[in-house]
Structure formats: C-alpha cells, structure tokens
Amino acid sequence: MSKVVQKKNHWTTKVNECSICKDARGELNVQLLGGAENGEFAYIGPVNGNAVQYRHGKVSEGELLLEVETLSVSGLPLYDVLTVIKNCKGPIRLKTVRQGNKLNKDLKHYLSQRFPKSSADYELQQTIRDNLYRHAVPCEYTYSLYCTLLYVALLHSFAKFMCRSCVSLKVKAGLFVLRQWKEDTSIFKEILLLIV
C-alpha cells in the first residue's frame, strides 16, 4: 500500500472533535467504558441521543476517547477520565476517533506495534506509556511516607529491647513524621498511638 493511501486512511485524518454541555444534574448523558484498568482505551458507550446537549460535533458509540479538554487521556484508568470530566466547567471538548485495525480499544495490541519515532502513532504510544507509568509507580510522597513509617517501626522494635528511657526515641521519630507531613496528620496520629 502506498504511503499516500496509508496517510489518507490513517486514524489522525479521522479524529472527531465535539463539545458537549452537561445537563442540569451535571451529567453528559454519554456513557464511557474501558479504561487502562481493563487494558483498554476509554471509549464511548451507549449515547442517549435525545438527552445529549451538543454544542458542536457529535460522538458515536465505540469511538475511542483521546482527549478531554486538550488533556490526553489515553492510558488513564476510567475513574481518572471521569474525574477529569466531572471537574470540567462549561461545555466539555472531547477528541475521539473511530476504531480501526491498528488503533482499536485494546491497549496491549496498540502498544505492541512498532512505529517510526516521529509519527503520531509513536507519540500516542508514548502518551499511553506515560499515563500508565504514573499509576504504576508510587509518587515521591507515598514512597517517602513508606520509608518514614518503616524507620519508625524499626525504632519501635529496637526500643523494645532497650530501657524505658529510650521511649523518647519513638516519640522523637513520631514528631519527625508529623513535621514532615503537616497536612495529613490524622493518619500519623493514629500510627503514633499504636507505636507509643
């Protein structure tokens, strides 16, 4: 197949943009399915045609959701996509594309393909990988929280074998934890009650 024909049939030429207003209850009346937690792109489910308030454009059942308000959502779990939509004000701009042979709802299938580095497919694969990576690797806050709690637990077990005056070590460690995370002290107060 020649490159000209391939470019005409490429999914980038078939991207659909639309804008949908929420109803009085704050609903889009467009069901979303899939999501990275299911190994799929988020995609459009059944559309309640009479209740959907289009500003411009339209969506069709089965289309893959690429962007919400210019935010690339490919590779995100469905609950994150729904959170983005819920927090949007005014008409919500969606970018969708019809499923094809190369680009269908199966993330694994799409990520297993090879594309030239400068292509739109390669960029979409990178976006998917970045979004998947964000949810697979704990953030720095969570990691440092685990390290500090491990440190406190070690101090606690070490202090059990020492004299009663070493209890102050546990209290100092607990205060260190509280100083580190002033915003979320309720969790640490409960942990400190268990330790001290």
UniProtKB/TrEMBL annotation:
Gene3D superfamilies: 2.30.42.10
The organism's place on the tree of life at top rank: Eukaryota
A GO CC term assigned to this protein in UniProt: cell-cell junction
Organism: Carassius auratus (Goldfish)
Gene: LOC113078786
Protein's name according to its UniProt entry: Membrane-associated guanylate kinase, WW and PDZ domain-containing protein 1-like
A biological-process GO annotation: signal transduction
Domain PDZ residues, every copy: 17-100
InterPro entries linked: PDZ (IPR001478), PDZ_sf (IPR036034)
Source organism phylogeny: Eukaryota, Metazoa, Chordata, Craniata, Vertebrata
